[in-house]
Amino acid sequence: MIPAVIFYACEKNSDNVIDVNISFPTISNLTVTPDTIFTVSNAPVVGLTASVKVTSEDVIKNVICTVINSKDSTLGFFNLRDNGSSPDPVANDGIYTGNISIEGFTCLAVGNYRVEVYAESEQGAFSNVLSKVQPVRFSNNVAPVISNLVIPDSVVRPTTGQFDITLQLNATDANGPCDINLVYFEAYRPSGSFIGQIPMFFSSGNLYTFTNPVLPAAADSSYGYFKYTFMAIDNSGLQSNIIKDSIKFVRP
Q1: Which domains does the chain have, with CATH numbers?
Q2: Nearest to 96 by CA among 78, 122, 110
Q3: CA dist., res. 133 & res. 78, Å (int)
Q4: What is the distance of C-alpha 19 from the center of its chain?
Q5: For 113-151, how does the pLDDT look when each residue is reduced to its tens digit (9 = 90+)?
Q6: Confidence of residue 40 (pLDDT cuts 50, 70, 90)
Q7: Residues 6 or more apart in contact with residue 13 via CB below 8 angstroms
């Protein structure tokens, strides 16, 4: 007699199994108005209207619009709706729309913002993501102002070792301190040859500084009057006033 071997199989549910029946929504035709957002620095508001076409076999749970500022910080997540209530003109036509207004800024960093939109179905399936660059500008933009430059008249190079010198100035902007994009100076050798554009670094308040070591040098090109042109640029590209000065590097 040959014994019978019986195999039993059981069905195991796994959360890791992908349901091939899930249909993923798709979005298209993202529009954002106005083309450029203009606001004022004393009470800034980032306001826009976003609209997108959603195609899905399943019920849509959310259509989310994300606004990201020019410093790559997320300002918020906002729902777009297809309910026929303003600003959505027609209910259930697959076009989701929303008015977005962001305010309460202590200082607004203008520049190129980014608007991103995606859809999610009731089954938890996510669509593709559409993105649009949205310029934000001040309608009352003014250039930054630099002042109170502190720079030595002359420096004696050491024979050995090194020491630091620090250049400093104040930079202000009527549109707010965060509207200052760059404070820098252009440096030139006594011969007139261009050394480079050198950034200054925020210290505190309105103060920007640059510290550099002074080293021994034998070459004649390392002595004489080094000339410097200081300026600042805001986030919209406006340039400040210019301050020019020099340092005489002297042999020990």
Answers
A1: 26-138 (2.60.40.2550), 145-250 (2.60.40.2550)
A2: 78
A3: 17
A4: 39
A5: 999 999 999 999 999 999 999 999 999 999 999 999 999
A6: very high
A7: none
- Beta bridge partners, 225, equal 248
Say whether pLDDT at 15 is over 70.
no
Residue 120 CA to residue 139 CA, distance in Å, equals 37
**Alpha carbons 93 and 189: distance in angstroms, whole number:** 67
pLDDT of residue 22: 81
- Beta strand 37-39 with 130-138 is parallel
Cα–Cα dist 71/80, whole Å: 24
Place of tokens 């890791």: 16
Residue 86, burial from CB neighbour count under 10 angstroms (0-12, 13-18, 19+): exposed
Residue type, 183: V
